[in-house]
């Protein structure tokens, strides 16, 4: 059964991808370090403190997260993932996106050819409902359908 959630559009666009869900904060640097520094084209999550997604490929997935955590490099890491073509299909946040991550995804949208819609404020119910492996569709109006 499909369920639709509505959030705030941070980066516009549409996407349809398999969900990869983390219930913990997403440490951008720790998660992407191996993928960006050592040529892992699947961008497998390198954050050993995030049991939900550790060693799981992130490139091309619908990343479903509460929020990002970590250092001031977070935005630049997301921009680099876009520049290298290793970005998720979309990033979907149950809570508001932080300003550093927002800056990185907006730069990725403006300065690269990457397509990565970003929606935040989807609510706690979104993160409770979506499970890894489900299909997620991001619509142009900012609505997100999970099935």
Description:
The protein is of the alpha/beta class. It is 27% helix and 26% strand. The protein is built from four helices and ten strands; from the N terminus they run ββββαββαβαβαββ. It has helices spanning 28-37, 74-83, 99-111, 124-129; strands at residues 3-6, 8-11, 15-21, 26-27, 62-65, 68-69, 90-93, 118-120, 135-138, 143-146. It has an eight-stranded mixed beta sheet. The chain has a two-stranded parallel sheet with strand order 4-6. Helix 3 (99-111) links the parallel strand 7 and strand 8 (118-120). Helix 1 runs parallel beside helix 2 and helix 2 (74-83) runs parallel beside helix 3 (99-111). The chain is globular, with a radius of gyration of 13 Å. It starts with a strand and ends with a strand. The mean pLDDT is 95.
Short description:
With 147 residues, the chain is of the alpha/beta class. Helices cover 27% and strands 26% of the residues. It has helices at 28-37, 74-83, 99-111, 124-129; strands spanning 3-6, 8-11, 15-21, 26-27, 62-65, 68-69, 90-93, 118-120, 135-138, 143-146.
């Amino acid at each position: 059964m499909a369920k639709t959630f509505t959030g705030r559009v941070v980066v516009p666009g549409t996407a349809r991808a398999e969900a990869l869900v983390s219930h913990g904060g997403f440490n951008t640097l720790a998660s992407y370090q191996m993928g960006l520094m050592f040529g892992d084209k699947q961008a497998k999550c390198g954050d050993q403190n995030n049991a939900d997604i550790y060693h799981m490929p992130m490139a091309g997935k619908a990343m479903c997260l509460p929020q990002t955590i970590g250092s001031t490099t977070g935005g630049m890491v997301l921009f680099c993932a876009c520049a290298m073509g290793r970005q998720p299909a979309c990033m979907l946040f149950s809570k508001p996106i932080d300003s550093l991550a927002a800056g990185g995804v907006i730069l990725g949208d403006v300065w690269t050819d990457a397509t990565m819609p970003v929606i935040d404020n989807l609510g706690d119910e979104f993160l409770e409902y979506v499970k890894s492996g489900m299909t997620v569709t991001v619509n142009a109006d900012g609505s997100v359908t999970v099935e």
